[in-house]
Amino acid sequence: MERIDISRKNDIKTLVLQDFISRINVNPSTGLTREDAIARRALYGSNRVTPPLQCPSWICCLLPCVTRIPSMVAYRQALPIKATVRRQSDHFKGSHIVHMSPASLVYGDVVEIYEKDVVPADLRVIKCSYNCVVDQAVLLPHFSKVEKASQTGLDNGDQEESVRILNNHGLEGDLEQQAHGHLKQVSVWTTNHDSLKSCNILLMGTRVINGTATGVVIATGDQTQWGQLISLNRWP
């Protein structure tokens, strides 16, 4: 398998859907085969984001307070804990749903996203419900730590309030304009070259607060928007 330059995410994001599927080389109805996933993991590595504070493991054991500093607390809160993936079956024609660790995701995986899910990798949306909304506050430095932390435990009242705010800004209106805040209406259309603003991109660490979506992985680990922000010391 030839390695694809996944740094060209803007190109992948703006391709028409059929060209995008061809570039990624995946059947969105069935997902990758097990063999494809193994080969892609060997090419691109695991879906692990390097934490903002790095130190030898023996130091972390001796100094447990290291894990309690704000940047590490924010990092652990933003980590996705599960991924729901569509994979081709080895035993019968068609596909099946697999629940796996987000670290096992690879470029090209077809991922199902549900309400309250933390997005487990950078995804291009290929299908979504009309009411799908994502909260991106965790990636935006100008939002307070309290607002970022709320992503880990939104109750129904919080979700309703977030959707109400988005409605007040015009849920039926211009999608690009909605994407300038921390709430973004999700769609299958490219609306901006900035991944934070484009409605057809779901970024790792953000949380879907309403609706459902299906997306294809376009970046994993340190190649994700979140991973790049950390590597540039721009997060949290």
Automatic annotation (TrEMBL):
It is a multi-pass membrane protein. It is found in: Cell membrane. InterPro entries: ATPase_P-typ_cation-transptr_N, ATPase_P-typ_TM_dom_sf, ATPase_P-typ_transduc_dom_A_sf, ATPase_P-type_domA, Cation_transp_ATPase_P-type. Keywords: Cell membrane, Membrane. GO terms for biological process: intracellular potassium ion homeostasis; intracellular sodium ion homeostasis; potassium ion import across plasma membrane; proton transmembrane transport; sodium ion export across plasma membrane. Residues 87-232 form the P-type ATPase A domain. Its main location: membrane. It comes from the Eukaryota. Residues 17-58 form the Cation-transporting P-type ATPase N-terminal domain. One of its GO terms (molecular function) is P-type sodium:potassium-exchanging transporter activity. GO terms for cellular component: plasma membrane. This is Carbohydratebinding protein putative. It comes from Albugo laibachii Nc14. The gene is AlNc14C164G7856.
